[in-house]
TrEMBL record:
Keywords: ATP-binding, Ligase, Nucleotide-binding. This is ATP-grasp domain-containing protein. Residues 123-300 form the ATP-grasp domain. InterPro entries: ATP-dep_AA_Ligase, ATP-grasp, ATP-grasp_PylC-type, ATP_grasp_subdomain_1, PylC_N. It comes from the Bacteria. SUPFAM superfamilies: Glutathione synthetase ATP-binding domain-like. GO terms for molecular function: ATP binding; ligase activity; metal ion binding.
Length: 338
């Protein structure tokens, strides 16, 4: 590849979008990065090579035409999705966009997105596939079975929305009074066994090609603050990564898959799967795993990719402030290309 080719990153202001952009900028490939977001104050719009304000994805027709025109006008070769809210849209429109623009869209099928977005469906899928999961029940649908559930699991318990990611809406309850307080008047919840051991929590990144083969893998012991990884350790966690490759293979996922788990008696117990890039994508880059580049090499350039082994070490996350001239903001607010 002798000349630069263009890739698109959506949701450029999210921690996921910024991680993707960082990885792409660190790539040895000659890339030109275009970024889109609905918010003119999104950092990714400023650090990418070109930034554009996009319509809301909820306005599907307008959003589709905007992305299609952008891909055609700039000859985009690959689309990376940085917003969880856009996953369902791109899952539905992937084939249509790839046909009309020739850009590869790195997103799993609607069926996989549905399973992974709903934590109850995730637990059911994993259990049927033979993978151990935390004991779980729905609220309010399964409330009649709460007594035997509590007798089996005891306290503490985790309460969280069936939909969502990170720590949003997640509550640890230590007794019946707290349980009742945190479920009353709510719906679409999952009540789940608490897997002890915060120092045994891992985030695992898997990238899969169009045949469902793992082309990248990394397991990191993570430390959280407000649901986001602030520190990560890479060590001899290859068995954990391989275990998650097996899980990913049964799902028939495509592109990036992020799996959250804790160890119980030394064995992985998965409690969440996100079919997207992770908030630790940038951290993984520092361990020598560039997931966006791996996907480009495999799916755009047709290179055979074998998962590399990450370097060992510790990565700490610290946020950084950026300065830009005011005219950059003015041009962005007016919807112009900076």
């Amino acid at each position: 590849m002798n000349r630069p080719f263009r890739v698109l990153v959506t949701g450029a202001g999210s921690v996921y979008g910024l991680g993707i952009i960082r990885a792409l900028k660190a790539s040895v490939l000659p890339l030109e990065i275009l970024a889109v977001d609905v918010n003119p104050y999104s950092l990714g719009l400023f650090i990418a090579d070109k930034g554009f304000l996009a319509p809301q994805v909820a306005s599907e027709e307008s959003y589709y035409l905007f992305i299609e025109d952008l891909c055609k006008n700039y000859q985009i070769k690959a689309i990376f999705i940085g917003s969880g809210r856009e996953l369902s849209f791109y899952a539905k429109k992937r084939k249509s966009l790839e046909k009309s623009t020739a850009a590869k869209v790195f997103v799993s099928s609607p069926a996989v997105i549905k399973i992974c977005r709903d934590k109850w469906l995730t637990m059911g899928y994993l259990s049927r596939a033979g993978f151990p999961v935390p004991a779980s029940m729905r609220y309010p649908e399964d409330m009649k079975g709460i007594s035997p559930f509590l007798k089996s699991t005891g306290f503490p318990l985790i309460i969280k929305p069936r939909m969502g990611s990170g720590s949003e809406g997640v509550t640890l309850v230590k007794n019946k009074r707290q349980l009742v307080k945190n479920v009353t008047g709510r719906k679409n919840l999952i009540v789940q066994e608490y897997i002890a051991g915060e120092d045994q929590e891992f985030t695992v990144g898997i990238c899969l090609d169009h045949q469902g083969k793992a082309i990248s893998k990394i397991a990191l012991k993570r430390y959280l603050q407000d649901g986001v990884s602030i520190a990560a350790v890479s060590d001899d966690y290859h068995e954990i990564a391989d275990y998650c490759v097996g899980v990913a293979g049964t799902l028939s996922a495509y592109g990036a898959l992020n799996i959250q788990l804790r160890l119980r008696d030394g064995k992985p117990v998965i409690f969440e799967i996100n079919p997207r890039f992770s908030s630790s994508t940038g951290m993984r880059l520092l361990f020598g795993i560039n997931e966006p580049e791996v996907l480009i090499r495999s799916e755009v350039l047709g290179q055979e990719m074998i998962p590399g082994r990450p370097e060992t070490g510790l990565v700490l996350r610290q946020y950084t402030d950026y300065y830009f001239p005011l005219d950059r903001l003015k041009s962005m607010s007016e919807g112009q290309v900076p």
